[in-house]
Amino acid sequence: MTKHLTFIAALAFATAGIAFAAEAAAVKNIVIVHGALADGSGWRKATEILEKRGFNVTIVQEPLTSLDDDVAATKRVLDLQEGPTLLVGHSYGGMVITAAGNDPHVAGLVYVAAFQPDKGESLLSLTSSKPAGSMNIKETKDGKYLYLDPGAFAAAFAADLPKAETDFLARSQVFASKQAFSAKIGEPAWRTKPSWAIVATEDRSINPELEREMARRAGSAVTEIKGSHAVFASQAEKVADVIEQAAGKAGQRRG
């Protein structure tokens, strides 16, 4: 009888330990890094979907003054998270999370129509390797910053969003420093962290084949979604699904 009770107690303790480990491993923090030529407000719909599913979502509003500045801004947000975090990057934001993702808070990386650079690569070197369809990037008069011609914004960035929305995005775009686009990456976080990638099949800002190639090289789990470069807004539900799945799998790896 005593042995039986001891066995039951040990089993109960072991079961509780397993449950605790699973709970401790869960990734509930999502930090999103927006791309250049836009800000984080376009992620509102996806954020609301994820929050309804129980996630704590924070969006980094990078200054876009340099890659180092944007990585530092991301790390400041990561420092505010309690527990493991899934780091999500769109477009140029992929450059940022590749560097910032080495932070110990980060459990995994999700690239959404984003650049996934290897060591020594820059955004400019990647885009020149496989040019996109219809970007019309211009310089500011001081020659220090870049912006997307508002007249070309809809076709290049967000062809599958309503016109009123793309017009607003074009007028509210955040100019990016040339330095940010030419900066080279150090050791990429995807070498040591699990990663996922969304390929936007109708992307005209980043060549979809380049997105596929970078994801293959990084060993990322790939999901293809029919959508423009602004797939995070036009297909928010599908993007949120990928992020949720990645958070679950990243948690399992840490458990």
TrEMBL record:
InterPro entries recorded: AB_hydrolase_1 (IPR000073), AB_hydrolase_fold (IPR029058), Sec-Metab_Biosynth_Hydrolase (IPR052897)
UniProt-listed SUPFAM superfamilies: alpha/beta-Hydrolases
Pfam families the record matches: Abhydrolase_6 (PF12697)
Signal peptide segment: 1-21
Entry keyword set: Hydrolase, Signal
AB hydrolase-1 domain segment(s): 30-242
Hydrolase in keyword set: yes
One GO MF term attached to the UniProt entry: hydrolase activity
UniProt-recorded name of the protein: Alpha/beta hydrolase
Species: Rhizobium lentis
Lineage: Bacteria, Pseudomonadati, Pseudomonadota, Alphaproteobacteria, Hyphomicrobiales
